Amino acid sequence: MADQTLATHRKFVPGFHFVTLGILVINIIWSLVRVVFPIPFVPVQDRLLNLAVAVALGLLAWYTRSFPVRAQDRVIRLEERLRLERLLPPDLRSRIGELSTGQLIALRFASDAEVPELTRVVLDQNIGSQNDIKKKIRDWRADHLRM
Predict the structure, then answer these.
(1) What per-residue string of b and e applies to 101-121 under the rule 16 or more CB within 10 Å gives b?
(2) Could you give the CA distance from residue 3 to residue 106 in angstroms, rounded to a whole number?
(3) CA angle 113, 100, 16 (to 5 degrees)
(4) 146 occurs within a structural domain
(5) Has residue 4 been placed in a domain?
(6) Which one, of 112, 108, 100, lies nearest residue 134 by Cα?
(7) Are 103 and 71 contacting, i.e. CB atoms less than 8 angstroms apart?
(8) Does residue 107 belong to any structural domain of this protein?
(9) Is 144 within a domain?
(10) pLDDT (tens digit, 9 = 90+) per residue, 54-91?
């Protein structure tokens, strides 16, 4: 697999992110147009139902993506806490609870050698942005199992 970096670590599945979501967005827009600009002999109830179904399908796609990602974030949080317990010096180990889920998710890309120093920087400077933490990583640790 290709090396991951800050620029390449995000995962896009073209069939989902572009094709499926694109079709759903077009469907919502078309259903909305049909409600605003009536088609002769099509009852308003049918047009409203079509719009409701289009919105429901959009929400279904959203939740189909967000629920597993949220579960993945919980697993990453646990994995990183265990990893930090093993890698951090005693003075930092007691501060693991201060790290937010977002900070732990960003720290997962730091190599084992780099994570103690970076964790200290994140905690001392109160860096909360995942992107800011990822920008500080020098030795990137790939995560090929991400969703």
Answers:
(1) eebbbbbbbbeeebbbebbee
(2) 17
(3) 90
(4) no
(5) no
(6) 108
(7) no
(8) yes
(9) no
(10) 999 999 999 998 999 999 999 999 999 999 999 999 99
Question: Structural domain of residue 67, as residue ranges?
Answer: 14-135
The residues facing 106 across adjacent strands are none
Please check the confidence at residue 2 and state whether its pLDDT lies above 70: no
Query: Tokens in use for 116?
Result: 């103690």
Distance separating alpha carbons of residues 77 and 100, to the nearest angstrom: 9
Sign of the alpha-carbon dihedral angle for 10, 147, 113, 101: positive
Angle at 116 between CA 115 and CA 117, to 5 degrees: 95
Chain length of the chain: 147
CA dist., res. 130 & res. 10, Å (int): 13
The total domain count for the chain is 1
